[in-house]
Specification:
Chain B: This is Aspartate carbamoyltransferase. Chain B: GO terms for molecular function: amino acid binding; aspartate carbamoyltransferase activity. Chain B: Its EC number is 2.1.3.2. Chain B: Heterododecamer (2C3:3R2) of six catalytic PyrB chains organized as two trimers (C3), and six regulatory PyrI chains organized as three dimers (R2). The complex is a heterodimer of chains A (about 180) and B (about 300). Chain A has three helices and eight strands; from the N terminus they run βαβαββαββββ. Chain A is an alpha/beta fold and about 180 residues long. Chain A has a single domain, classed as Rossmann fold, CATH 3.40.50.2020. In chain A, the strands form two sheets. Chain A has a five-stranded parallel beta sheet with strand order 3-2-4-5-6. In chain A, strands 1-8-7 form a three-stranded antiparallel beta sheet. In chain A, strand 2, helix 2 and strand 3 form a beta-alpha-beta unit. Chain A is globular, with a radius of gyration of 16 Å. Chain B has about 300 residues and is an alpha/beta fold. Chain B folds into two domains: about 140 residues, Aspartate/ornithine carbamoyltransferase (Rossmann fold, 3-Layer(aba) Sandwich), CATH 3.40.50.1370; about 150 residues, Rossmann fold (3-Layer(aba) Sandwich), CATH 3.40.50.1370. Chain B has eleven helices and nine strands. In chain B, helix 2 links the parallel strand 1 and strand 2. In chain B, helix 1 crosses helix 11, helix 5 crosses helix 6 and helix 5 packs across helix 11. The mean pLDDT of chain B is about 90. Classes of the chains: A alpha/beta (about 180), B alpha/beta (about 300). At the A-B interface, loops of A face helix 1 and helix 11 of B.
């Protein structure tokens, strides 16, 4: 199994800082904006973005967790149902600007499900997408991210392994893995 | 565990504790959905469910129908009154005719114990038992134990007494199975005539004195006296039953602890339970109804997702 390191801890921190500066350019002090991290791994990234934004802006940022399981389009098309994760959106998103955050953008189907799931909490004025890794040329549906940590040209047979300390690993590492044939 | 081992929910008896826990965890998420401004998800949008009720039902039928609609399933309803069953059509023919209309899941209530088991051997659709005679009522037991878990934190180690007409109750049998699988201690309490002769062989305690039973338990699940199933008189009068086994506020106040009161409905107010108890803060009767929708959504979701 071959693997290539895409992010280590240091590069990840620098990238999150850059993404946060980019967010502040468009969202100001976040008074009309909220963040929704996509379950399961987008929530860790969302929390890191929250921490960085709060330290820069010096005020609390609203962050929710959104699970898309019940809105996916592959239900009954796989062997067994996916196990849902917790959805925690303790605020209204009506008339807010929403930033969806996920770790990897691949086919775009999770984001489509997230857009669907999000509307059960109201109608935002604007929705944007932030991802750490954009797997280019892999989209099944027309979804693109507004903020990208790194664009990577990958093949379908490869997969991205995200190891974050929040998941119990010793340090942050994100790998691109070539699956054996 | 991420899926149920079976494609039907016929009873609690054949479920593993891990499967019950999976249903609970899924129901937690559906309960969250039910508290959102928009209480609907599209998971079952390509699934058609037939609610086939050969016996009367208000709560269960409404609860299943709401659960199906919250999951975006297409729903058809059938009740035996006013149908061709009255003209002599067999159960299998009736259901096969419904299935010929391309139905994926059947929720069935029937007065004969084992009717859903019989059907499951002859048809391809997923079958959910919504009560078969005096045998099992699995979703009721799931929502009851889910409600105990929600109120008290955990089912394991709790002492639960089931009070009343155990002999005619499918709720009692399913509850005994579910509670024991989840690690609770179970007692049944009622007049000797309404307790099955060998009920002790299921590993439950038997108590004839309601006061002693309430002093022992953490949770009391009070069942309805099922007059429609009683083909003979099991006790002299409702008034006498109420006097000896009715749960009222004075009785609860005289205990040296607080217990949780449950009832699967419909309540005969003033018979097995008085209004001041049914409407008190000890009662989780309406929580049971609310949880019923979430539990049924979880069961429908997990069964529909098991694609062979």
């Amino acid at each position: 199994m071959q693997k290539r390191l895409l992010f280590n801890s240091k590069l990840l921190q620098i990238t999150i800082s850059r993404l946060c500066q980019h967010l502040i350019e468009n969202h100001g002090d976040f008074s009309d904006s909220v963040i929704l991290g996509l379950q399961p791994r987008g929530i860790y990234l969302a929390e890191r973005v929250r921490k960085e934004l709060e330290s820069i802006l010096g005020k609390p940022i609203q962050v929710g967790y959104l699970d898309t399981t019940f809105h996916r389009d592959d239900f009954r098309r796989r062997d067994h149902p996916l196990t849902p994760y917790e959805t925690k959106v303790p605020f209204l998103i009506e008339n807010k600007r929403v930033v969806l955050i996920d770790d990897v953008l691949f086919t775009g189907r999770s984001v489509r499900a997230a857009l669907d799931a999000m509307t059960t909490f109201g109608r935002p004025t604007k929705v944007e997408l932030l991802v750490l890794i954009d797997r280019m040329y892999s989209r099944d549906i027309p979804v693109e991210a507004n903020y990208v940590g790194r664009r990577v040209n990958t093949m379908k047979s490869q997969r991205v392994l995200v190891e974050l300390q929040e998941q119990g690993t010793e340090e942050d590492n994100i790998w691109l893995i070539n699956e054996p044939e | 565990m991420s899926q149920l081992k079976t494609k039907h929910l016929l009873g609690i008896k054949n479920l593993d504790p891990e499967e019950i826990e999976l249903i609970f965890e899924t129901a937690d998420n559906f309960k969250d959905v039910l508290n959102r401004p928009i209480k609907k998800v599209p998971s079952l949008r390509d699934v058609t469910v037939a609610n086939v009720f050969f016996e009367n039902s208000t709560r269960t039928k409404l609860s299943f129908e709401l659960a199906e609609k919250r999951l975006s399933a297409d729903v058809i309803n059938f009740s035996s009154s006013g149908s061709s069953v009255k003209k002599g059509e067999t159960l299998l023919d009736t259901v096969n005719n419904i299935l010929a209309m391309k139905v994926d899941m059947v929720v069935m209530r029937h007065s004969s114990p084992g009717a859903p088991h019989f059907l499951s051997k002859h048809i391809d659709a997923n079958i959910i038992n919504a009560g078969d005679g005096t045998h099992e009522h699995p979703t009721q037991a799931l929502l009851d134990t889910f409600s105990i878990r929600e109120r008290t934190g955990d089912v394991a180690g709790k002492k639960v007494v089931i009070v009343g007409d155990i002999l005619h109750s499918r709720v009692a049998l399913s509850n005994i199975f579910a509670l024991q699988k989840l690690g609770a201690e179970v007692m049944v309490c009622g007049p000797a005539t309404l307790l099955p002769k060998h009920i002790g062989s299921l590993g439950v305690k038997v108590e004839l004195d309601i006061r002693k039973a309430l002093e022992w338990c953490d949770v009391a699940n009070v069942l309805r006296i099922q007059l429609e199933r009683q083909k003979m008189r099991y006790f002299p009068s409702l008034r006498e039953y109420s006097l000896y086994y009715g749960i009222n506020k004075q009785l609860l106040d005289s205990l040296d602890k607080e217990i949780v009161i449950m009832h699967p409905g419909p309540i005969n107010r003033g018979v097995e339970i008085t209004s001041d108890v049914a409407d008190s803060e000890h009662s989780i009767i309406l929580d049971q109804v609310e949880n019923g929708v979430a539990i049924r959504m979880a069961v429908l979701y997990l069964l529909a997702g098991n694609v062979e």
